Amino acid sequence: MRRKLVAGNWKMNGGLAFNAALLAEIKAGLKQVDCDVALCAPAPYLAQCQSELAGTPIGWGGQDLSAHAAGAYTGEVAASMLQDFSCQYVIVGHSERRAYHAESNELVAQKALRALQTGLTPIVCVGETLAEREAGRTDEVVGQQLDAVLQLLDGAELAKIVVAYEPVWAIGTGKTATPQMAQDVHAALRAKLSAKNAGAANVVKILYGGSMKPDNAGELLAMPDIDGGLIGGAALKAADFLAIIAAA
Ligand SMILES: O=C[C@H](O)COP(=O)(O)O
User: Fold this and answer.
1) 3.20.20.70, 2.40.50.140, 3.40.50.2000, 3.90.640.10: CATH of 5-247
2) Domain coordinates of the chain in residue numbers?
3) Of 63, 133, 221, 230, which one's alpha carbon is 20 to 30 angstroms from that of 69?
4) What is the pTM (predicted TM-score) of this model?
5) What end-to-end distance do the CA atoms of the chain give, in Å?
6) Which parts of the sequence bind substrate (predicted)?
């Protein structure tokens, strides 16, 4: 039985005052927590997350990291820097990074490896565009995205990753994959993991992301291969985020 993970991705939103209010409301509203919870914040606010969330059931993490350990890479954030702020998680290969920063499957895999080598749990995002889905290429596209990771990691490393299936057409659009559509892709991803290492496939959490909200979280999270959610917009509203945690 995999414990569910509800991870918020604030994307490039927030500010000191906004975050303080949001975190206070989430902490106050968090009752019994039967799942793992995490927030992935913009790098400048990780110190704030650390001071506000240490000692709570909520973990925190970054939204990206460099594949390099250190050096002349202006603007990038090293895994060791995330570690300095006690991050447990880091998102890699979000579709916005793939689309706007031309991140390749191979680079995303290298980032996942770097995270693991630093003791961080990478949340590896995969997902197809609307054109790819309509062309019947969903499994092929997400399969290739996952393959790059499978090629780089050994079985022990693989068991430590989290995968997030995020259909690009469902992100921030209000359109959600139906529970069955999502389940089908999650099952295909788990089969791929299993072909590489059956033990790892059993423990790897596969999250769904893409307009997950309080009103659809319950039925998505009830699917056998959906092990949680990667939440964008709804993570910026305490009541919505708390409702999704409760559904998990
Ligand atoms: O990382 C989160 C996803 O991109 C989902 O965003 P969304 O919940 O706003 O659709």
Assistant:
1) 3.20.20.70
2) 5-247
3) 230
4) 0.98
5) 13
6) 9-11, 172, 211, 232-233
